[in-house]
Amino acid sequence: xxxxxxxxxxxxVAALYVRANRHIPEAMRAAMARAEAVEASPVGRxxxxxxxxxxxxxxxxxxxxxxxxxxxxxxxxxxTDVYIDGDLAAA
Length: 91
What we know:
Blueprint (H helix, E strand, L loop, with lengths): L1 E4 H17 L3 H13 L3 H20 L20 E4 L6
Parallel strand pairs: 1-2
Helix pairs in contact: 2-3
């Protein structure tokens, strides 16, 4: 049986949340750049340009990406040989 502490779960989720708010996959950035290139609306082009600029600033500085990142919802599925030591819901 594998024992994982609730703190380990909380630490892993926190690290993933920070990563998701600071790093955009290159494929997504490339798709945004393609969308900017073909966007007909001036407001749409400006919005996409700002998002791309923000992605670059976040990559250079390590600051979070400035957009609505929402709220993390975590779903966990445990196998029969896994035990969480502690309060998983509180973690």
